[in-house]
């Protein structure tokens, strides 16, 4: 697997078809990915996670196949939440494991060609996964409706501590353009978003604005 396929994303778009205002998910994602052009991020620095846990296998596979076409056309990687079988069936780039999923080692044994990512909410989870996966999504950093069930926000101090473990972290939870600089300074490699793009009236502009902020923040960090 080449390095571009396994590199952590700078921007990780997580789907939620309940947050699109009735618009088809693939249409919203397709519109959002058009925002990469002129943003300062390259397509390989962006990834999409299909996270629709309520769908059964057949419906999820149909949606994943349509989304695979959309992401492939944009040159963007696709991760499927939890379902290794669906990821393999549609030719996705990776699988994203939650706390109740298979272990990273088991996932690699089943599908060695897939990149593996996890969700983590505690520093011990980051330590346990270090060296085994491509990246971890860490949070929620700030309060956000989609992450309330995971408890109180972890905040920037814990993000900073977790980043020192050495596993690339993609920060999630209430992150908008005004907060990008803070989370990257705290050690995050990239930023994940859901509603900031999924619910936006103009997903193209929403993703482009967020991507531009990330690109500027990375450039400023590289110069310092």
Q: Ranges with pLDDT <50 over ≥5 residues?
A: none
Percent helix, as a range, is 40-55%
Termini, distance in Å?
A: 32 Å
Shape: globular
β-strand amount: 15-25%
Structural class: alpha/beta
Under the CATH scheme, which architecture would be assigned?
Alpha-Beta Barrel
What is the typical, i.e. mean, pLDDT? Answer: 93
Q: Largest beta sheet, briefly?
A: 8 strands, parallel, barrel
Secondary structure tally: strands: 8
Number of domains: 1
How many helices in DSSP terms? 10
CATH topology: TIM Barrel
Radius of gyration: 16 Å
User: What is the CATH H-level superfamily?
Assistant: Aldolase class I
Brief digest:
The chain has 224 residues and is of the alpha/beta class.
Descriptive account of the structure:
By secondary structure, this protein is of the alpha/beta class. 41% of the residues lie in helices and 16% in strands. An eight-stranded parallel barrel has the order 1-2-3-4-5-6-7-8, surrounded by six helices. Strand 7 (169-171), helix 8 (180-185) and strand 8 form a beta-alpha-beta unit. Helix 3 crosses helix 4 (84-90). The radius of gyration is 16 Å and the shape is globular. The relative contact order is 0.17.
Quick tags:
224 residues, alpha/beta, TIM Barrel, 8-stranded parallel β-barrel, 8 strands, 16% strand, globular
List the helices and strands and how they pair.
Layout: H1 3-6, E1 11-14, H2 25-33, E2 46-50, H3 57-74, E3 77-81, H4 84-90, E4 94-97, H5 104-110, E5 115-120, H6 123-129, E6 135-138, H7 155-163, E7 169-171, H8 180-185, E8 190-193, H9 195-198, H10 203-223
Parallel strand pairs: 1-2, 1-8, 2-3, 3-4, 4-5, 5-6, 6-7, 7-8
Helix pairs in contact: 2-3, 2-10, 3-4, 6-7
């Amino acid at each position: 697997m080449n390095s571009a396929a396994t590199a952590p994303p700078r921007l990780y778009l997580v789907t939620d078809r309940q947050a699109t205002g009735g618009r088809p998910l693939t249409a919203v994602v397709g519109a959002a990915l058009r925002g990469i052009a002129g943003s300062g991020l390259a397509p390989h620095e962006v990834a999409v996670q299909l996270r629709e846990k309520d769908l059964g296998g057949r419906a999820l596979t149909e949606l994943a196949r349509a989304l695979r076409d959309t992401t492939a056309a944009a040159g963007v990687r696709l991760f499927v939440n939890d379902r290794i079988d669906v990821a393999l069936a549609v030719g996705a780039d990776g699988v994203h494991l939650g706390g109740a999923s298979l272990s990273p080692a088991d996932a690699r044994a089943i599908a060695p060609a897939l990149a593996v990512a996890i969700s983590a909410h505690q520093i011990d989870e980051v330590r346990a996964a270090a060296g085994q996966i491509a990246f971890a999504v860490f949070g929620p950093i700030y309060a956000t409706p989609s992450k309330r069930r995971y408890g109180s926000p972890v905040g920037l101090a814990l993000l900073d501590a977790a980043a020192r473990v050495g596993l690339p972290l993609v920060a999630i939870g209430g992150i908008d353009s005004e907060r990008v600089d803070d989370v990257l300074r705290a050690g995050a490699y990239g930023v994940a978003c859901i509603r900031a793009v999924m619910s936006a009236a103009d997903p193209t502009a929403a993703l482009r604005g967020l991507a531009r902020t990330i690109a500027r923040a990375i450039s400023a960090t590289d110069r310092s």
